[in-house]
Design brief:
single chain; 3 helices; globular
Length: 45
């Protein structure tokens, strides 16, 4: 899942995250994933 997250961040030309959690937050702020998904993904990381 993290690899997919990083691909999305790169493709959307978002700022490169320093952590996996930041990667998830960037996609949430961009409207790609919902708050509910964000919580679940943070638990995985």
């Amino acid at each position: 899942m993290i690899d997919i997250c990083k691909h999305f961040v790169s493709a959307l030309d978002l700022k490169e995250p320093e952590t996996y959690s930041e990667c998830i937050e960037r996609l949430t702020k961009a409207g790609i994933i919902s708050e509910e998904q964000t919580e679940s993904m943070h638990m995985m990381v």
